[in-house]
Amino acid sequence: MRRLTILALALAFITPGAVKADGDPKKGGQAFRACVACHALEPGLHLSGPSLGNFLERPSGSAKGYGRYSPELKSAGFEWSPAVLDAWIEAPEKMIPGTYMSFPGISDPVVRADLVAFLMIAGAEDGVKRVVAEGLIPASWTRSVAPDPIGEGSPSNRIVSIRHCGDSYFIETEDGASYPFWEKNVRLKIDSTDTGPPPGVPVVLGAGMRGDRISVIFRSIADLSRLLVEECG
Ligand code: HEC
């Protein structure tokens, strides 16, 4: 029932006659800047929003490996078309009330038509390669804000011990450097994906060990609970 209501709302909102069909994908590539903070185009590369690689090939709310869909988008399960996309980027919250995509929408129909023309290429199979090859967007946008892969790390950022005492962390790296940090300047993060550190080896990132504010990245919660200890002395 809920699903039907949402779909009915979604469809009522879409007025295909009003969609401009002659968008310029090159200008649309520039308009895609508004989306890059949350979406990568590389298939499977999920950021705060799901990857838009090949998204036209699947129903809404069904990207493999993306676990943060709103129940509303997930259960709607509609197919994408230029008209549906136009309605989505005009006002996501109106089309799917309750969506987690916090984006105010684009009111200018010309900009939307350009962006839809771009998305119809970018979201199709092999679309990512095409938009770069055709110069519609810079190659760096396909990964967007995804971090650079840590890989194996280096002796200066691989952590051999990390302990917490009082309001401090004491961190030692493989090259022998060791420093205390104020706990409020240390961000503890998990990166469980390909961009994360090797299992069992947390790394320090950011300004590095001499920096005032640092991030410590663990591969998993298991690593964090095993390797980070509360110990004074
Ligand atoms: C602030 C982050 C953010 C911005 C900016 C943003 N999105 Fe999203 N987007 C999301 C999130 C989160 C979802 C998942 C929404 C949900 O589950 O309700 C989403 C979902 C989507 C989907 C559905 C994907 C699927 O797998 O069904 C499309 C298509 C989409 N966004 C396109 C865009 C476009 C185009 C733009 C730029 C005009 C944009 N988004 C801007 C966060 C964002």
Key phrases:
233 residues; alpha/beta; Cytochrome Bc1 Complex, Chain D, domain 2; 2 domains; 8 helices; elongated
The total count of strands amounts to 7
- How many domains? The number is 2
Helix and strand content put the structural class at alpha/beta
The distinct bound ligands, ions and cofactors come out as: heme C
Uncertain segments: none
Secondary structure layout plus pairing:
Layout: H1 2-13, H2 25-31, H3 71-76, H4 82-90, H5 92-95, H6 109-122, H7 127-133, E1 159-165, E2 168-173, E3 178-182, E4 186-190, E5 203-206, E6 214-218, H8 221-227, E7 228-230
Parallel strand pairs: 1-7, 4-6
Antiparallel strand pairs: 1-2, 2-3, 5-6
The chain binds heme C.
Describe the structure.
- The chain is α/β, with parallel strands linked by helices.
- The chain has two domains: 2-142, Cytochrome Bc1 Complex, Chain D, domain 2, CATH 1.10.760; 159-230, no CATH class.
- The chain contains eight helices and seven strands, in the order αααααααββββββαβ.
- A hairpin with a 4-residue loop joins strand 2 (168-173) and strand 3.
- The longest helix is centred in the middle third of the chain and has 14 residues, at 109-122.
- The radius of gyration is 22 Å and the shape is elongated.
- The protein starts with a helix and ends with a strand.
- The structure holds heme C.
- Heme C is lined by residues 34-35, 37-39, 48-50, 52, 55, 60-61, 63, 69-70, 73, 89, 99-103, 119.
